[in-house]
TrEMBL record:
It holds the Pfam family PX. This is Putative V-SNARE. Residues 293-355 form the T-SNARE coiled-coil homology domain. GO terms for molecular function: phosphatidylinositol binding. InterPro entries: PX_dom, PX_dom_sf, T_SNARE_dom. Residues 251-263 have a biased composition (Polar residues).
Length: 357
């Protein structure tokens, strides 16, 4: 039995439809064992779900819905929005964590949350709903990161499929290699859709001013790295499947291993054999070249950021020097005033002493 999804409503948003009255959308985040996604629902959707669950099971859900207000609007009242947000999250969590499964086993529950179903038709509807809701959820700063995590999962799946393809080529299994190559291309293509969605969502977030410049810059860097990785995976997945010579390769590996056992120098040696890492383990020559370019571009970006920091520090130092110069001049003037005042006091004391005599 699959574990229940982790449900939360971290944020809300206002409908951006030009026509019609604006309304509040509740961003429902669902985290499954292998993926996470966002579903957006309004108050009337929750009411329909509640009525349908009552109709299909004959028993009301264990948690009531937040009450409706006739003289208040969540669009204008932040307190009412927060109250309903907490109430809806409690409502969904109570059903999801209840020992009684009768409400969770209904088609209305799965359709409401866009959960996968055993029915092919329901699954297709669920997938289409997820696609549209992901595009809408990308404009929210909290759900943007959840969608980015799913993007990283897709890229990881594509890398694994390419690794399986290479293993199948080594063993001479052409059918398995073609299937793995198709899986890699499919995951990379889906990742491209996610990159475009996140890029558009980040643009909307920037327009609304919900994030600072530093966080926006960080997320742009995440998207840039994911886009470059996706392009590299596209090239690897689209490359022609060519047979390799496992015998010669095994001999080379054996010779390398035996030579390393004979003499294993310590410390860094210029021109020595490069050490295999987790990043380079599954890459061929084209992938290694792409990884090297990515690392160099990241280093260039870090150098640019460091240069900007040094320039700002230099400006601050110059301004501090100017301020200290002004302060020193003021102290010099104050010292001169104190000297003149001290001289006047001495003159005054002498006059008083003469008057006293």
């Amino acid at each position: 039995m699959a574990p229940p999804p982790e449900i939360a409503i971290p944020s809300t948003s206002i409908s951006d439809e030009e026509s019609g009255k604006p309304y509040t959308l509740y961003n429902i985040t669902l985290r499954l064992p292998l993926r996470s996604f966002v579903v957006q629902k309004r108050y009337s959707d929750f009411v329909k779900l509640h009525e349908t669950l009552l109709e299909q099971t004959g028993i009301p859900p264990p948690q009531p819905l937040p009450s409706k207000h006739w003289f208040k609007s969540t669009v204008k009242s932040a307190d009412l929005t927060r109250e309903r947000q907490v109430g809806f999250e409690k409502y969904l969590r109570t059903i999801a964590e209840s020992p009684d499964r009768r409400w969770r086993d209904t088609a209305a529950w799965r359709l409401f949350l866009n959960l996968p179903s055993s029915s092919t038709t329901s699954s297709a509807v669920s997938a289409n709903g997820r696609a549209s809701n992901i595009a809408a959820g990308a404009a929210d700063p909290a759900t943007w990161l959840d969608i980015h995590r799913e993007l990283k999962q897709l890229l990881h799946e594509s890398r694994l499929a390419i690794s399986k393809r290479d293993s199948a080529v080594d063993s001479g299994n052409t059918t398995a290699a073609e299937q793995a190559s198709m899986t890699a291309r499919r995951s990379a293509a889906k990742a491209g859709t996610f990159v475009a969605t996140l890029t558009e969502g980040l643009r909307k977030i920037q327009d609304t001013g919900k994030l600072g410049d530093g966080e926006l810059r960080r997320r742009r860097d995440l998207l840039s790295a994911a886009k470059m990785e996706k392009e590299g995976l596209d090239r690897l997945a689209s490359s022609k499947i060519s047979s390799r010579d496992p015998i010669n390769r095994g001999t080379a590996v054996s010779d390398t291993a035996s030579s390393s056992r004979i003499s294993k120098p310590s410390g860094r040696i210029l021109g020595g054999q490069a050490v295999e890492t987790v990043k380079t383990k599954e890459l061929d020559n084209a992938g290694l070249l792409l990884l090297q370019k990515q690392e160099m571009e990241q280093q260039d970006e870090h150098l640019n950021e460091l240069t900007a920091i040094i320039q700002r520090t230099k400006k601050m130092g110059i301004q501090m020097d100017e301020e200290l110069t002004i302060q020193n001049e003021m102290l010099s003037e104050m010292d001169k005033d104190m000297t003149r005042l001290d001289a006047k006091i001495k003159v005054g004391k002498n006059r008083l002493r003469k008057l006293g005599e």
